[in-house]
Design goal:
TIM Barrel; 10 strands; 39% helix; globular
Amino acid sequence: MPLYDSHLHLQDPRLKSLLGNLSETYADMDVEKVIVNGTEESDWEEVGQLSELFPFVKPAFGLHPWHIFDRSPYWLGNLEYCIDHYKGFVGEIGLDRWIEHHDFDDQIEVFKKQLQLATRKGVPASIHCLKAWGKLLEILQEEKLPAQGVLLHSYSGPREMVPQFVELGSYFSFCGYFLLDRKEKVRATFQTIPIDRILVETDAPDQGLPEGKDLYHLNAPEDGKSINHPGNIAAVYDGLAQTLGISADKLIEQVAKNYRGLFESDN
């Protein structure tokens, strides 16, 4: 049964050395599709090129809240062009009060414009959120949303908000970082999410698994810091299956349905 990685960043320079062997790695693991998310104007073209080079890559283009200060006056038009030209989705977009020196009002404006573009284009959006869950919910309740839904990537929000996000058509992705012992609260939240709304991601090269639970270990040559290998997607599936108390096969089958419902639906 095929695996799907709903959110990662293969364009990241830290993963460049892996790209030559990635097709073989994914074939061995039966990885069907991965959603590669752009985060700033400067990487959108590379994301698009990866989708032309590798049949397993589906591209998404977005202006991440960490990079809104670098945008050009033409960013929104450039974003629309990439979505049209590469047949892509919208992402990674969102809200973030965690970063220092943030301009939250500007984040909201940029986020709304991208969400509106996704709705107009009829494509799903992958959403990043840190310490801004209340405002995110408010915006999603006010705005018209893509018919397919939106993905709350690496969902770490309050479990109390899950039913409201579900009602709005949201999906929730689980990453390997949530398998750390101190992320018990997040794992408990995922136990409350309807299984037909759960997806799986690596967020490679970031949000790695706990030491000993990863299938592939990779260190950056310049500083020796651990890098999350995209081949760890199978380990994330296994960790989530254990968290939910179901078999890996059942999870794989359900996630495949969920992936198609969000990213391959024509609604």
